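step 3/5: co-fold with nicotinamide-adenine-dinucleotide
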Amino acid sequence: MDSCNTPACQSARELFAELKEHYDDHNLYFQTIGSVLEAANALKVPHRLKLILSQPKNEIMIHCPVKMDDGSWKLFKGYRVQHNNVLGPYKGGIRFHPEVMLDEVKTLSLLMTMKCALARLPFGGAKGALRLDPASVSADELQRVTRRLTAALGSNIGPDYDIPAPDVGTNSQIMAWMADTYSNFAEPSRKVIASGVVTGKPIEFGGSFGREKATGQGLVYVLDELLPGMGMEISQLSYSLIGFGNVGSWTARLLKPRGSRLKAVMDHTGAIFCADGLDADQLAQYVSTHGGVANFPAAQAISNESFYQIEVDLFIPAALEQMIDLEHAERLNCKVLVEAANAPTTPRAENYLLQQGVKILPAILCNSGGVTVSYFEWKQNRQSEQWSEADVDARLKTTMNASARRVLKMAKQLDCDMRTASFAAAIEHIDRVYEARGVFP
Ligand code: NAD
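step 4/5: write tokens
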């Protein structure tokens, strides 16, 4: 394939040459660093900040031996990447997926640093992953793997140091097992605070009201803030979704009472379409019992190719990284691409869409509702409080609206696209904190 000559790629290539480190144009980590460096260059931040952000502080790799129900043994590979903690403890989800790779986890940890900084949360960025398909093991095996993973992470996580949360393939039950395992190792005087080691826990065990829907809810608040400026009205628009898991289904369920029409959904089981609009609540119910959207009765099955071509106002990827490549982008028929998933759009697809006049609302803004309510949960745990859902929603709205306005202001100041603006608004804050703290020693 051709080498990439965009300013982002050139910045990343130069920096990794200076570091005498491997560089690859086609690798998601280097592509993401390239976009971050482009924003850093636009802000003219000190070179030392670019060096600091270019590599994670810690990359932890573990291997967990676990006895399966049939008596056999399996060895599971896990990662925890801690990118930066200048703003506060490391924070980021932990995913269980059969195909996770270290560079993907590094990318997601970098995005967490940017996301927390953009939202002005007192957290740094991290991400974790375990190479496992959770659907392929029994509930008992899942619990043993989770507890063994938590024990293996040991003091690399902690409520004052690094705080995991749910992500793809993990949920509140898995967080409960992690918190319980960690608490069992904690000093007696730290037992109460120890359950704050993870967020996204069940309500009965220190979870926050509003956390489960938080990422979708945050996205809806961002749309409320930004769409009117683009001449769009939530109640009038149509959209399609990739992914109907936590983020996708909550986005759809929250957009339903606002009057938006969900025309098509694609997940790992197939793609479905209904011109008059799919009922998000019925579909969520169906997916919870059937495992995916395929064969949903009130819809027509369509091919994945035709899914991308459906005319909609908003196209919302809410599944995995890099699903919108150039080939898919060329098929899209939308006005705005709303990134609910992390890093769903390849740089080539993004360049093409921007040239076509499609607006891209970046992930570090759109999906920051999850980590924001995780912050609220962590705060509630430290104060032994439980806030009402209305209180959580009101605080989330304030944070999301402020982040969206920050991105708009930066886009105007730098005369740039929204992704560059969102990274710049994050980097500006990190730069100020490094200026105040200095770099040790
Ligand atoms: P999830 O596991 O609940 O759902 C994932 C969805 O992706 C499922 O509907 C699955 O069918 C679909 N999917 C998987 N492979 C697919 C494929 N090849 N083609 C089409 N669809 C496919 O995960 P989630 O928590 O909803 O996370 C989705 C995205 O949002 C991820 O990028 C995640 O990092 C990001 N995110 C999640 C949260 C959160 O609070 N859960 C917060 C911020 C960002």
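step 5/5: annotate
The longest strand covers residues 73-84.
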